[in-house]
Amino acid sequence: MEKIEIRCGLECHQQLDTGKLFCNCLGILRKDEPDYIVERKLHTIAGETGEVDEAVKFEAGRDRNFVYQGYYDNCCLVELDECPPYEINSEALKVALQISLLLNCEIIPYTQIMRKTVIDGSNTSGFQRTVLIAKNGWIETSDGRVGIQSIDLEEDAARIISQEENKVIYRLDRLGIPLVEIATAPDIRNPAEAKEVALIIGDILRSCKVKRGLGTIRQDVNLTVSVDGKWGKRIEIKGVQEPGLIIKTIETETKRQEDLIKKGKSQAEVRKAEESGETIFLRPMPGGARMYPETDLPLLHISREIINNAKKELPKLRSEIKDELRKHGLNEEIVKLLSEENKISDFQELIKVYNKPDLIGKMLTIWMKDIENKLNKNKKDINNKLTIDILETILQAAQSGKILENDIPNIMKEIVEGKRVEEAVRREKIENLEEEILKLIKEKPGLSKNAYMGLVMARFKGKVNGKEVAEIISKLAK
Questions:
Q1: pLDDT of the residue at 1
Q2: Distances from the Cα of 35 to the Cαs of 19, 32, 159, 161, 162, in angstroms?
Q3: Which of 10, 51, 392, 449 would suit a FRET pair with 412, their CA atoms being 20 to 30 Å apart?
C-alpha cells in the first residue's frame, strides 16, 4: 500500500475597504463607460539578482498589447504610472495590522516596500508594489497549530474587461485597491484541515474593515505531494474561491501528482482550479528574481504608536459577536442574517433604544428583505431611506405607544416609498373611536382581543393609536 502525504499551505488575498494604497483615489469599481483609454506594451526586466524570472519570460513570449480604461474621479497618474506613488494609506495599514494581530503575528517595525515584476498587463508599471508587514503568526485548528508565515500589504491589479489572443482590455478602477496577502506555513496535512484553516482566516478577515462580495477575496492553495517518501514539486493552485472546493481540489490534484511522481515528471507550476476540482496549467512557477526594492518610497516605519492605535480599535471576531447575539435570544437565522448583512453594529445601537431583540433583528433583516422584494428596490436605496436614525425614531414611536409593533413593517415600507418618517408614525385621532370599535365587536362576536385589534387596525389602515385601541378593546371585549 502506497503511503501518500501532503504538505499544504494557503494564500488568502483580501481587499480592504479603504481608499487606494498609494494615492488618494477612491477604491470603488465602476460600470459606466470610461472617461479615457490608454494603450501600452510591457517588456521584461531583470530582478535584483540580474536574472529574468521564468514566469516573466513566459508572459513576454505571448507578445500582447494592453488597453487601459480609466476614470477621472477614481484613477489618477499613479495608476497610469505617470507620477511617483504617494505615502502608504494609513487606514489600510491600520486594518492590515489589526488582521496581523488577530493572527498572532510579529509586526516588522522597519520594512522595505518592494516591486514585484508583473508583465501580464494587470499593472501599468509592469510591477506590483508589496510590503511585508508581519510574520511568524499562528492559528489553532482541530488538528493542531498552523503557522502564518507572512502577511503582506499590496496593491490589487487592474481587472480584465475582455481579452483576445494578442490584446487585453483592463479597467484601472481596481488597480491600487489595498490587499492583504496572508500566507500560511505548509503545516496543513489533510484536505479537511485546509478547509478549516480557510474558514478561520475568513472569520478573522470579515471581522475587520474589508470589502465584501464577489471578487473581493481570492484564495490559492500551495501543495506538495509525497508518494512513499518521494516528494514531488510544489504546485500553486489559483482561484480556489469557495471553502467547499478546497477539499475536492486538493484530493484531485493529489491524485494527479501521484501519477506524475511515479513517472518522475512532477513540475513546479502555477495551475488554475476548476469547479470540478481538476486543475489546468497557467504558467511556470515564479521565483525570487522578480522582486526588487521600490525606489520612490522610503523604508516603512511601523512605530509602536501606530501598533498601539491599531490595538485600541481591534475588532471582535465574528464568532464572538455571534455568541453575544445568541445571548439576546435571537434564533440562528437572524444571527446569520445580521452577520451577513453587516448589521451587527446597527443592532447593538438599536437595542439601547428599545429592548426587543427579536423585533430589531427582524427590522434589520427579514423586513428589509421583504420591502426589497415587494418594491423591487435595491438594497442600497433601502438602506439610504431606512437609516439608523429613522429606525430609532420608529422604535421610539412603538415604545411610547403611538404605534403598534405590528405597524412597523408597513411604516418602513411607506418611508421607502417616500413618506416622511414623522408622517408615517403619526396616528390620527378618530372621532367616536370607542363607538366604532363596539360596533365591530357586535358585528363579529366571540373573537379574541388580538383578532379585534387586527380588524380595527385594518379598518383604519393603521392610522389610529395602537395603545389607545388596545385599551378600548380590553374594556369592551369581556
A1: 72
A2: 20, 9, 16, 15, 17
A3: 449
Sheet holding 167-171, edge to edge: 36-40, 65-70, 167-171, 159-163
Residue 392 to residue 362: CA distance in whole angstroms = 14
Query: In this predicted model, what pLDDT tens digit does every residue of 118-164 receive, in sequence order?
Result: 878 899 998 999 999 999 999 999 999 999 999 999 999 999 999 88
Return the beta strands (E) in 42-177 as ranges: 65-70, 106-107, 110-111, 113-117, 127-141, 144-155, 159-163, 167-171
How wide is the angle at C-alpha 159 spanned by C-alphas 155 and 162, nearest 5°?
Answer: 160
The domain ranges of the chain are: 4-300, 316-425, 433-476
For the chain, the first-to-last Cα distance in angstroms comes to 82
Distance CA 448, CA 459 (A): 17
Q: Name the amino acid, one letter, at 290.
A: R
Query: Residues with Cβ < 8 Å from 135, sequence gap 6 or more?
Result: 105, 106, 108, 148, 149, 150, 151
Euclidean distance between CA atoms 440 and 461, whole angstroms: 15
Residue 425 to residue 415: CA distance in whole angstroms: 10
Q: What is the DSSP string of 265-309?
A: ----EEEEE-TTS-EEEEEEPP-GGGEEE-TTS--EE--HHHHHH
CB 135 within 8 A of CB 108: yes
Rounded Cα distance, 293 and 275, in Å? 38
Higher pLDDT, 40 or 99: 99
Answer for the pair 193, 30: CB distance below 8 angstroms, yes or no. Answer: no
Averaged pLDDT, 372-397: 88
Q: Locate cell 429606525: which residue?
A: 391
Taking Cα atoms as reference points, which of 9, 22, 10 lies closest to residue 153?
A: 22
* Residue whose C-alpha is closest to residue 406's, from 449, 353, 466: 466
Q: Residues near 294 by Cβ (< 8 Å), separated by ≥ 6?
A: 85, 112, 113, 114, 115, 129
- Write the pLDDT tens digit of every residue in 399-429: 887 777 888 888 899 899 988 888 888 755 5
DSSP-based three-state secondary structure for 152: strand
The DSSP code sequence of 62-91 is T--EEEEEE-TTT--TTTTTSS---SPPHH
Nearest to 158 by CA among 146, 144, 170: 170
Query: Shortest CA distance to 219 belongs to which of 453, 66, 419, 9?
Result: 9
The strand pairing partners of 293, in sequence order, are: 114
Fill in the DSSP letter of residue 94. Answer: H
